[in-house]
Amino acid sequence: AQKITQTQPGMFVQEKEAVTLDCTYDTSDPSYGLFWYKQPSSGEMIFLIYQGSYDQQNATEGRYSLNFQKARKSANLVISASQLGDSAMYFCAMRGHNTNAGKSTFGDGTTLTVKP
Amino acid sequence: DTAVSQTPKYLVTQMGNDKSIKCEQNLGHDTMYWYKQDSKKFLKIMFSYNNKELIINETVPNRFSPKSPDKAHLNLHINSLELGDSAVYFCASSQGPQAPNTGELFFGEGSRLTVL
Fold first, then answer.
1. C-alpha distances in Å from residue A78, one per residue of B29, B49, B65, B78
2. How far is A108 from chain B (nearest CA, A)?
3. Window 2-31 of A, Cβ < 8 Å to B
4. Of A33, A43, A109, the CB nearest to B103
5. Which residues of B touch A43 (CB under 8 A)?
């Protein structure tokens, strides 16, 4: 079974500051991928960043980085230099590579509000 | 060209009616999904098809019947609609679960179903 836990229902950050959104996971699959998606108020789901369970380095994509701590089963998203357009709901997700037929399981999401 | 497109974007209907949502992807992906996002924004997988074959069928009422005429299309038919079916239904696609890839989901814009 796969489980994703996001313990922060809502977060606030000042514009231009960095923010960390927490995500912990549980899985019996030895190989898996971790994802973050953004859902702005307009409703679409946007893929942000991916981390493979065997990747040695933390993933980075522009202002997004993933702080992956495998032993702690955490995959926190760090957004640097926050912008007003970062205000959205953020979902952490995981997908097993060997079991669960490629199913992606999502956390409950964190609503991020960037203050000017 | 929209990568994953769903129609209609909005449906408003009475309890007891039947409705369908269509989804098409032009990404050449093997796997397509239906996700349901409820009023609390929780995102849950409903079904997944890989090359027209049903591979994931979560505990969804029998009133929901997916159909995949080919690997680029996945439709969702809902019989005898109930109030609790009101939600946003997202279609998504990804590369196959066994492919050596990140496997991120590409989402459609969502179809907001309101049952009165």
1. 30, 33, 39, 39
2. 5
3. none
4. A33
5. 88, 109-110
In which element (H, E) is residue A10 found? strand A10-14
Write the CB contacts of B56 (distance below 8 Å, at least 6 apart in sequence): A100, A101, A102, A103, B33, B45, B47, B48
A114: left (phi over 0), alpha (psi -120 to 50) or beta: beta
Three-state secondary-structure class, residue A61: strand
| Predicted pLDDT at A31 | 87
Q: Identify whether the C-beta of residue B75 lies closer than 8 Å to the C-beta of residue B67.
A: yes
Cα–Cα distance list, B73 to A16, A92, B23, B33, B97 (Å): 42, 27, 6, 10, 18
> What is the pairing mode between strands A24-26 and A3-5?
antiparallel
Q: List, for residues B15-58, the tens digit of each pLDDT value.
A: 999 999 999 999 999 899 999 999 999 999 999 998 888 988 88
Peptide bond into B8 cis (omega under 30): yes
CA of A63, closest CA in chain B: separation in Å?
Answer: 19
Q: For residue A20, which amino acid is it?
A: T
- What residue type is A16 in one-letter code? K
Say which residue the tokens 């030895």 belong to. Answer: A30
> CA-to-CA distance for B39 and B41, rounded, in angstroms?
5
